[in-house]
Amino acid sequence: MSSASLILTDRGLALSEPRAIGAQGRTKVLAASSLGGCLVFVSSAVVTVALAAIGRDMHLSPLDLQWVMNAELLPLAAPDLSRRRSR
Q1: Residue 72 · residue 44 · CB < 8 Å
Q2: Spatial CB neighbours of 19, under 8 Å, sequence gap ≥ 6
Q3: What is the rounded radius of gyration, in angstroms, for the C-alpha atoms of the chain?
Q4: How many helices (H) and strands (E) does the chain have?
Q5: What would the mean pLDDT of 21-50 be, rounded to a whole number?
């Protein structure tokens, strides 16, 4: 996959030259990826802790609680699943 991007010129759209990512850019990417992974972990932990209260308040069976957990985690996993499929 190319790292070139589209730019708007007075003649229309054109491809820009790919730019190399320096050490500082790689550090930012690593930090953002690490933070995203931590947020997914914290989010799933919060839902796991709250499952008992959710089930009690909404009168849900254990099977329904599994659907709650899946519904919360699927949007978080979707970008990873689509990225692996495109490789």
Answers
A1: yes
A2: 3
A3: 21
A4: 2, 2
A5: 82
